Amino acid sequence: MLRGRLLTARSERFLHHVPGGGAGDGEVADHALWWPPGKVAGRRLAPYLAARDGEPELDSEPDWPRLDSIRLISALFEDGGALGFAAIRPRGARGHDEDVAVTRLIDSEGEPAETSEALLSVEYDADGAPRRLGLELWTDPDASPLRVAADRAGEAGPQSGRDAVPMRFRLDGVDGVGLYEVLRPA
């Protein structure tokens, strides 16, 4: 189960998704979809997480016997827009084409932008650490995708089962900050 609170300059959205459980595309609301509403709260989630020394807390452990990994992107842009992305890789999957992905994009006005598909590409350095990423987001099936690019802004913070890399993001010429995280069974 994935739960998230996406904060922007003007509003907040609560996200809930059950991967592989047949529960549909997930749920988005302007109120908490669980109780308590969260242990991590702040006006700007991505900078807060990028500046943290410790590991964010999960309400419960992922169902690791069914999963190989979870990849997360959280970004906040200078114009007030925000991006949340999660890709869940089922156990035994051969590649990212088998990932279950959910994306939430909030525009500079605080409004959600619907995405029909998202494709993530990550470039790694010689040590295996993420160096750069690209995310293509389809908001209109008849148009070219929005392209999000990010470059590593600091060193990866390996912790038990989690790699968190601070990144500098760009979307349509607007700069942003955030994290790329990969969670694996400990």
CATH topology: AttH-like fold
- How many DSSP helices? 1
Question: What is the helix content?
Answer: under 10%
What's the level 1 CATH class?
Answer: Mainly Beta
Number of folding domains? 1
Label the overall shape: globular
CATH architecture: Beta Barrel
Number of strands: 12
**Rounded average pLDDT:** 79
Distance between the termini: 18 Å
Low-confidence stretches: 38-50, 52-56
SS strand fraction: over 45%
Order the strands across the largest sheet as they lie in space: 7-6-5-4-12-11-10-9-8
Helix- and strand-based class?
Answer: mainly beta
Q: How would you explain this protein's 3D organization?
A:
- The chain contains 1 helix and 12 strands.
- It is mainly β and 186 residues long.
- It has a single domain, classed as AttH-like domain (AttH-like fold).
- A 9-stranded antiparallel β-sheet has the order 7-6-5-4-12-11-10-9-8, with helices on one face.
- The two termini are 18 Å apart.
- About 10% of the residues have low confidence.
